[in-house]
Design goal:
By secondary structure, the chain is an alpha+beta fold. 35% of the residues lie in helices and 25% in strands. It has a 5-stranded mixed sheet with strand order 15-14-13-16-17. Helix 6 runs parallel beside helix 11. The protein is elongated. The two termini are 42 Å apart.
Length: 366
């Protein structure tokens, strides 16, 4: 998802491009029930928090519509608006999104589908609506359970369009993720860092970096023009194993033992094959003191315990509570599996993105 500043001329150019003969277009279609003869449906784009009109959608007498538009070259969030009510949908490239809504409150009465991004964005809006119904609009921002769930979704795909949508969302004019709040600021930082690494040419990357840096607490440890983390040996992890015993990562590293730190999910299809490779490396270097500290992100605790019981290394569960989210942010876990090799001095020596390179990485710290 990206922020881009558009002038009226640029916006007009987009409208013209939507009428071009290109076949490479994204498409929205569906039905809006309950429209009157005088209702106007507008398609709007976003300009760093401000919305501008791209085109007018003209449903037929039964509320059906079908509209296509040339892509901008990067994912973005759009919205359909009738009067003061709007519904939001994401476009990644040239996919088709299906929208079904009922006027006048199309925000409260709609479904969107057609892509994983569309379904995740709909899930975010549904979670916000449920929280607002239970706690009122003012209570949404203070809803800790909601923020934990949203944080989990953001960290699962931090350079995705839905992550940007969630951290940019405002409730009654107030940011859902407040950059002046420490945990919210760190989640914003994870998104900014991921956009910087994976979407450097995305127009919204500059905005995200500025949002993060402008709200960073003063520190003499890092220059003001970077979002890189302070150099640390490794962040502490204190998580519980299947028997309920707290296991400390630093207790292992302080003994001078090399550690393979792995974030995973045992219920993932690739997990058994991954653990076979992990075990080969473990058995090869176990006698030289290497330890594995494996952090599971599984939501099924029973299934996690069943697998953990059969593994010879330290297996702990990160349940994505508030502290759990911080752990993922600290270690920049944007996808799983994520694996680090920590040397005998307790310093992260390497992030291993290819499991076939793990043996070499471990050998370098023995």
């Amino acid at each position: 998802m990206k922020h881009i500043s558009l002038t009226a001329v640029a916006a007009a150019a987009i409208i013209v491009s939507s009428c071009s003969g290109s076949n490479d277009k994204w498409r929205i279609h569906g039905t809006i029930d309950g429209l009157s003869d005088t209702d106007i449906v507008l398609l709007e784009g976003n300009n760093q928090g401000g919305w501008y009109t791209i085109d007018t959608i003209k449903p037929d007498s039964k509320g059906r519509f079908d509209y296509s538009h040339a892509p901008q070259g990067y994912p973005d969030i759009y919205r359909l608006r009738t009067g003061t009510n709007s519904l939001y949908f994401p476009i990644d490239s040239v996919e088709t999104v299906t929208i079904t809504a009922t006027a006048p409150d199309i925000m409260a009465n709609h479904t969107i589908s057609g892509s994983p991004e569309a379904e995740n964005l709909a899930k975010v809006d549904s979670m916000l609506a449920v929280s607002a119904a239970q706690k009122g609009p003012a209570g949404v921002i203070a809803d800790e359970e909601l923020k934990r769930e949203l944080g989990k979704m953001i960290l699962a795909d931090p350079d995705g369009i839905v992550a940007y949508y969630a951290i940019s969302k405002k409730i009654d004019g107030k940011p859902l993720f407040n950059p002046s709040v420490s945990l919210d600021h760190r989640i914003i930082g994870a998104v900014a860092n991921s956009f910087t690494s994976n979407r450097p040419s995305d127009p919204r990357t500059t905005y995200l970096k500025k949002l993060y840096l402008d709200n960073r607490r003063p520190s003499g440890a890092a220059p003001a023009n970077t979002i890189e983390a302070q150099e640390v040996g490794s962040f502490e992890l204190k998580l519980y194993d299947r028997k309920g015993v707290e296991r400390s990562l630093h207790e292992i590293t302080e003994k001078g033992r090399p550690v393979i730190l792995n974030f995973t999910a045992y219920t993932a299809e690739w997990s058994p094959a991954f653990n076979i490779v992990l075990n080969k490396v473990y058995e090869k270097y176990r006698s030289q003191g290497v330890e594995i500290y494996q952090v599971s992100l599984d939501t099924d605790e029973y299934a996690w315990k069943q697998t953990a019981a059969n593994l010879p290394w330290i297996c702990v569960l990160n349940n994505l509570s508030t502290d759990g989210n911080i752990n993922l942010i600290n270690y920049n876990v944007t996808a799983i599996p994520t694996t680090y090799v920590i040397n005998r001095q307790g310093v992260i020596a390497e992030r291993v993105s290819d499991i076939s390179e793990l043996d070499r990485a471990v050998a370098s710290v023995m």
